[in-house]
Amino acid sequence: MSAEIKDHKNSKRVKVIGLKESDLDKLIFPFKKHTITSLEYKPFSRFTLAKSLDEVFEGKLGKSLVKILNDRESGTAIIEPEINNKKFDKDFLVKLSTGLAYLVGNPNFDSMTGKYYARFYVKHQDSSDSYLRKAYTNLDLHTDGTYVREKTDWLIMTKMEEQGVSGGESVILHLDDWEHLDELSNNPVGQQNFTWGSPKSKNIDYKVEHPVFKKDKNDKPIISYIDQFPEPKNMDQGLFLQRLSDCLEESKNKIEFPLPVGSTIFSNNYFWLHGRKPFKENTNLSRELLRIRGTFFN
Questions:
Q1: Are 223 and 145 in contact (CB under 8 A)?
Q2: What gap in Å lies between CA 218 and CA 279, rounded to an integer?
Q3: Is the CATH number of domain 4-165+259-268+279-296 3.40.50.1010?
Q4: CA-CA distance, 43 to 106, in Å (whole number)?
C-alpha cells in the first residue's frame, strides 16, 4: 500500500496514516461523480465512494483501519492527507471522511443535523447549549453517543478549516493508560445504571439509561461517559461522577497534539476518550469540524 503507516510522535498507540497527493489526485474524478446532496440522499453512493478510495490504496486501507481500530493496544488512527492545494476543497474532505467511515462500518444518524454526519463551527462568540462550541472552555475528556439508543463503536472527527486559532489542541486518553482505571471501573456505583439526557440542540427527545463502565468480550473495561449529560439519581452517583471527572482531567497520561487542517482522527469509542484544550481568545477565531460516528460492519 502506498499510504505510509507510522507511530505518532507522542504515542505508539496512535497510528498516523499519510495519504500522498499523487494518490489523492486519483480520487478527484471518481469523487466528482457524487455530489454532497447525493451522498446525503442515497446511502448506497457512500459505499461506491469508499470502494473508490480503497482501490486507490490496493484494497488495503480499509483492512488497515479495521485492524487498528479493533486493536486494544492501539485503537486510534490519524489520517493526514497532503491537501495543500486548492483542488482539494471542503467537499473533497467530506467525501474523503465519508469514504473512510464506510470502509469500516455504517454511520449513525446524527440527530443534531439530521444527516449521517455533522458539520459545525467553533467561533469567538457562542450562544449554544453545549460545551462542544465553547471556544474558551476546556472540552473535558469524554466518549460519544452516551445519550442515544444506537451503539457508537467509533468516531471520526475531521478538521475542515480554521483561522485565528491559537491553542485548541486535541486531547485523547487510552483507558488502559489511565491511572485510576482499576479504582473507578471496579467501583459498584460505576456499574449502576445512570440516566443520560442531552440539551435541546442535540434534537433527542428521550433519555437513556446505562452504566459508565462495562466489560468487553475479553473482560476488559470499556467506558461511556461525558460530563454534561448524566443525571445522577443520588449522592453516591453524584460524587462518583465528580471523582471520575477529576481523575480523568488530572491524568498525566493524556496525549495532546495539534491536528493539521484536513486531517482526521478515527478512534475506537469504547477505550479512547477525547477532548480539546481551550483556545486563546481571538475575535477572528473560527474552526469548522466534521463528525461521523457509527458501528462496525458485522
A1: no
A2: 39
A3: no
A4: 10
Please list the residues that pair with 159 across neighbouring strands.
289
Task: Read off the pTM.
Answer: 0.95
Kindly report the number of other CB atoms within 10 A of residue 253's CB atom.
Answer: 11
Residue where the block lists cell 490504496:
57
Enumerate the β-bridge partners of residue 120: 289
For the chain, the straight-line distance linking the first and the last C-alpha, in angstroms and rounded, comes to 25
**Helices (H) and strands (E) in the chain — how many of each?**
8, 17
| Of residues 261, 47, 34, the one with CA closest to residue 163 | 261
Name the β-bridge partners of 87.
none
For 63, the 3-state DSSP assignment is helix
Q: What is the pLDDT of residues 156-199, one digit of tens each?
A: 999 999 999 999 999 999 999 999 999 999 999 999 999 999 98
Domain with CATH 3.60.130.10 in the chain: 4-165+259-268+279-296
Which contacts (CB < 8 Å, 24+ apart) does range 114-120 have?
114/203, 115/40, 116/40, 116/43, 116/46, 116/292, 117/290, 117/291, 117/292, 118/290, 118/291, 118/292, 119/94, 119/160, 119/288, 119/289, 119/290, 119/291, 120/288, 120/289, 120/291
Instruction: Quote the crossing angle between the two packed helices 90-102 and 43-56, to the nearest 10°.
Output: 90
Listed in sequence order, the residues at least 6 apart from 12 whose beta carbon sits closer than 8 Å to its beta carbon are 74
Question: In percent, how much of the chain has pLDDT > 90?
Answer: 93
